[in-house]
Design a protein that fits this description.
Blueprint lengths: L5 H11 L10 H19 L11 E4 L2 E3 L1 H7 L20 H14 L4 H8 L3 H7 L5 E2 L1 H8 L5 H11 L1
Antiparallel strand pairs: 1-2, 1-3
Length: 162
């Protein structure tokens, strides 16, 4: 199990977007996709010591944010981030790539504001937002997302990882 750089996770989602089909990613949407990816990986790995990426996830006013990635794309404001054409998908382990694809295929269909509203109803953001330390821990992500995925999904990840 690898911990990736948050840049690579963000770039994955940007590279998957396809503006020709109306598939656009703003910074707001990107933050939510990174959050959902971190959460789903935390659930399937079942190990708080090996998060998807080392950068923290924080509870901000408009939902979970990876601050390093927010700052990286802040110049785009609410506009869409241009897609990446030269992204190397092979840098990911096959089982992790499968989870990232699942996150994109499921959550990527929603608008940035729909994703924002979804996260506002979820325990990781709710708990962190209402306390002094706004960091959403890998443990909190694992506890919440473990209830969002089936045991079969977790087992299929483990089989691919072996």
């Amino acid at each position: 199990m690898r911990t990736y750089h948050a840049d690579d996770i963000a770039d994955f989602f940007i590279a998957r977007s396809n503006p020709e089909f109306g598939d656009l990613i703003s910074n707001l949407k990107l933050q939510k996709l990174c959050y959902y990816a971190a959460g789903l990986i935390a659930a399937v790995r079942e190990d708080d010591r090996c998060p998807l990426f080392a950068d923290g996830v924080e509870a901000w006013q408009h939902g979970p944010v990876v601050p390093s990635q927010y700052r990286r794309f802040a110049q785009h404001g609410a506009d869409n981030i241009p897609p990446k054409d030269d992204f190397d998908f092979s840098q990911f382990d096959a089982n992790d790539l499968s989870v990232l694809d699942d996150v994109y295929n499921f959550y990527g269909q929603y608008s940035a504001w729909k994703l924002r509203n979804m996260t506002h109803e979820e325990r990781p953001w709710l708990d962190a937002y209402h306390r002094l330390n706004k960091t959403i821990t890998t443990s909190e992500l694992r506890e919440f997302f473990a209830n969002e995925v089936s045991r079969e999904y977790v087992e299929s990840y483990r089989v691919k990882a072996a």
